Amino acid sequence: MRSFYNILFFIIFFSWIHGNKIAVTTKVKGQVEIMPIGKDNFANLKPGTILADGDKIRTGSSGFTAIIFIDDKSTLKLKENSEAVITGQRSARSIAKKINMDVGTVRATVNKQNSNFVIQTPTSVASVKGTDFWMITDPVDGDIVIGLEGLVTLTNNETGAEVDVTEGTSGSSTPDGDVGVEETEESSIPEDPTDQDEQQAEIKIYLEGPNGEQKVMIIEYE
After folding, report:
1. Are strands 117-120 and 95-110 parallel, antiparallel or unpaired?
2. What does the pLDDT look like over 130-141, one tens digit per residue?
3. Number of independent structural domains in the chain
4. Which residues pair with 202 in a beta bridge?
5. Residue at 178 is within a domain
6. Residues facing residue 68 across a β-bridge
7. 12-22 per-position pLDDT tens digit
8. Which residues of 35-74 are buried (b: 16+ CB within 10 A; e: fewer)?
9. Are strands 95-110 and 131-138 parallel, antiparallel or unpaired?
10. 36 near 58, Cβ under 8 Å?
11. CB atoms within 10 A of CB 114
12. What CATH code is carried by the domain that includes residue 102?
């Protein structure tokens, strides 16, 4: 598995340094669509698609997708009925990541790094430096952050009030400005579809040539 990721990131590195590429799709299940930056229409998202700063992803009622960022291998998983814009500001060695999320459920596993990782919703901002957590956002009910590991700071947009969410706790933030934190109930933790997956045998990497033509590279691994 490690050799697979070494090859994968070697390939993506060359795409990244010549453009605004920040992540790659590793899994797609059910209905998942992408609106690339600068486009007006959604198209089906495929595993192996390299994502650019500003691409918008949405999942249908049975959709799921997982992406991995090319600088530090942090991952983001979007469950069904989710919509998010993936953005990142690059520096020499890292990407400051910001996920603008309107609605849905995501799991972020963030490796320790020097750059920021932020999820922005209509209600709150969740900022981390290295952690694992779920975030559930709804424009009417607000946000729930479920800490699995590390620390997440959840800040309410309306009042600026904030709470720290750690392993075993859940933080809430509402549109009217209230925030809170309590012990997590096991039944409230969303199911991660990748926990039951068998190991993938291959991945297709979709690259765009200098004239806009699409090229596909297939990597097989054990």
Report:
1. parallel
2. 799 999 999 999
3. 1
4. 220
5. yes
6. 24, 75
7. 554 554 457 88
8. bbeeeeeeeebebbbbbbbbbbbbbeeebbbbbbbbbbeb
9. antiparallel
10. no
11. 10
12. 2.60.120.1440
